[in-house]
Design the sequence.
């Protein structure tokens, strides 16, 4: 089982460029999340989805957009990249948000914006 | 505001025991999680506490006191492979996870 797969693993962008991070899960999970991880800070939720066709804003949504057209895929878009968006991005999924349902994370995507 | 506090870094010796503390102030409480994250890798689940007390899982144990807003992760018989960051996360009243910045654990031979 692949679990959660993120592409690309590394990307360098220039300020103002756009890009999309792809996340795919094969566990039939309803919930999917995009986090960013920066040094000295906890994981911060960007956007999340509670099912196919739904999206919701997290703690730090500005500058990002998402789509969940298929249950297994969750896309994160940067329309006009800024240096402040240099970070490691993690996609995660879970069956739901209650009880002991844990998050399964992808391997991460390291993005540098020059 | 919501806050999770953990020590930034800890050092321990191979074969020893180490306790990593986590204190939290959140809007409600619906469970506390510990994740392990090796450098350059994804976080992986270690433990879950929702009731007060100790949960034991092999060499790892996690304790929770809801009245004190406090948890700890206890690692016994430390091995070099335990060198990693340990992330504490609390699920709040909206079922959102609030994450601590993580504790980097360095194991020395």
Sequence:
């Amino acid at each position: 089982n692949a679990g959660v797969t993120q592409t690309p693993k590394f990307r360098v962008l220039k300020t103002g460029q756009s890009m999309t991070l792809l996340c795919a899960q094969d566990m039939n999970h309803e919930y999917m999340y995009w986090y960013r991880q920066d040094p000295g800070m906890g994981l911060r939720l960007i956007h999340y989805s509670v099912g196919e066709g739904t999206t919701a804003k997290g703690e730090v949504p500005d500058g990002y957009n998402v789509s969940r057209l298929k249950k297994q895929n969750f896309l994160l878009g940067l329309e006009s990249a800024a240096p402040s968006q240099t970070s490691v991005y993690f996609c995660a999924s879970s069956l739901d948000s209650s009880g002991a349902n844990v998050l399964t994370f992808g391997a991460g995507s390291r993005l540098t914006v020059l | 505001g919501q806050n999770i506090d953990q020590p930034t870094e800890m050092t321990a010796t191979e074969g020893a025991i180490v306790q990593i503390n986590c204190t939290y102030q959140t809007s409600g409480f619906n469970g506390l999680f510990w994740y392990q994250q090796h450098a350059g890798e994804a976080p992986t689940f270690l433990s879950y506490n929702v009731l007060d007390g100790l949960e034991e899982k092999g060499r790892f144990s996690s304790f929770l006191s809801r009245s004190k807003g406090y948890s700890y992760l206890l690692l016994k018989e430390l091995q070099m492979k335990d060198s990693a960051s340990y992330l504490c996360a609390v699920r709040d009243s909206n079922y959102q996870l609030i994450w601590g910045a993580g504790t980097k654990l360095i194991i020395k031979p």
